[in-house]
Amino acid sequence: MTEMARLHRCRWIAIAAMCVSATLCLAVSQPKIAREFSGKVIRVTDGDTVKVLVDQSPVIVRLEGIDAPEDGQSFSARSKRALETLVAGKTVTIRSTGEDKYGRTLGFVFVEGVNANARMVAEGWAWHYKKYSSDEQLAQLEVSARAARIGLWADPNPLAPWEYRARQNPPHTAASDKPAATTGTYWLNTSSNVRHNARCEYYRNTRSGRPCGPNEGRACGSCGG
Ligand SMILES: [Zn+2]
Q: Catalytic site residue 62?
């Protein structure tokens, strides 16, 4: 082999290696699309779930890679409204990535060429659901939304929906561990020492806190504690 030929061969090997690694990177950051279908959005359940009529059958679609505030959390209504504004009553294309553990279709929702999942994160109405998604675009959009303090990021210390759900459904504890019926009826924000009752939007919805009795802490100014 001449020196020139050897150089060429090296260059091709280098290019081939780059192609392989680029393909692998794409495979990691973009979930596989299992199927694609279209339908009309007949209901927006919340900021990350819609019901779509496909061939006259309703299909519940959980938006892939994002997580929106739960009912009872701050900004849940505005998050839902943002998704409604985007997709309600419209014909959308779903690029499905599979199903979640509840049997709901997971997917990206496209409306008039707009990726609704990405838009919700970009406008600060949903979090990138990092536990189940390594999508680089969604990660970057959340960083930008946080920096701009738009949508739910107006709150400097928001509670992630998955943390909120974990607090709503704490791991099972033996009945004998918690004797008082009053415990758990109120929620104490342990950093501000403010007590909230079960109807308050901050109930089980503060970054640090614990269930408490009716006489602990200071009563919340809005719910009365
Ligand atoms: Zn309160």
A: yes
pLDDT of residue 175: 46
In angstroms, the Cα distances linking 63 to 60, 69, 72 are 10, 13, 20
Report d(CA 23, CA 198) in Å as an integer. Answer: 50
CA of 188 to the centre of ligand 1 (A): 9
Residue 63: per-residue pLDDT? 98
Expressed in angstroms and rounded, the spacing between residue 163 Cα and the centre of ligand 1 is 19
The CATH architecture that domain 35-154 belongs to is Beta Barrel (2.40)
Structure tokens belonging to residue 125:
């109405």
The reported pTM is 0.66
| Res. 12 pLDDT band, cuts 50 70 90 | low
* Residue ranges matching CATH 2.40.50.90 in the chain: 35-154
Helix, strand, coil percent values for the chain (each to nearest 5): 35, 25, 40
Give me the count of residues in the chain.
Answer: 225
Q: Which residue has the tokens 């019901």?
A: 51
Distance CA 154, CA 147 (A): 10
